[in-house]
Design brief:
The protein is mainly α and about 130 residues long. The chain has 2 domains: about 60 residues, Orthogonal Bundle (Arc Repressor Mutant, subunit A); about 45 residues, no CATH class. About 55% of the residues lie in helices and about 5% in strands. The protein has 6 helices and 2 strands, in the order H-H-H-E-E-H-H-H. A two-stranded antiparallel sheet has the order 1-2. Helix 1 packs across helix 3 and helix 2 packs across helix 3. The radius of gyration is 18 Å and the shape is elongated. The protein starts with 11 loop residues before the first helix and ends in a 5-residue tail after the last helix.
Length: about 130
């Protein structure tokens, strides 16, 4: 489910947050699916439950999960719809695109990369053709 890299410079709670976010966005955790309890995930990963709670709180603030008192935390249906997260990702994409252009990647190659992203229509599909 989630793996931690202790050599990663990012804090553990951010790694957990990113791992859960990825599971939700890719559909591995479906809408309304229950997340492991804070205590269960902390035991599984051998880390402090407060670290898991912090990740869950931030994911809830971003709109990726929601909590039901006494029941637990669940994957939200509008995963990725949070405007601040959208802006953050677009800014990262701009930075990456600028660096790739500096390294000689053409605009057409960048456009092809974006159009090949999961969920984006393929170029031939847009024109009604098959791949």
């Amino acid at each position: 489910m989630i793996s931690l890299n202790y050599r990663d410079s990012r804090p553990i709670y951010e790694q957990i947050k990113d791992g859960l976010r990825k599971l939700i966005v890719t559909g591995a955790l479906g809408t309304g699916e229950k997340l492991p309890s804070v205590r269960a995930l902390a035991t599984q990963l051998s880390i402090n439950p407060n670290t898991i709670q912090r990740a869950y709180n931030e994911l809830e603030g971003e709109g990726y999960i929601y909590s039901v008192p006494g029941k637990g935390s669940f994957a939200a249906g509008n995963a990725g719809a949070d405007e601040s997260r959208r802006k953050e990702l677009l800014e990262k994409l701009r930075e990456l695109a600028a660096e790739l252009k500096y390294l000689g990647v053409t605009g057409e190659e960048l456009a092809a990369l974006v159009s090949d992203a999961p969920g984006a229509p393929r170029q031939n599909e847009e024109k009604g053709g098959d791949r």
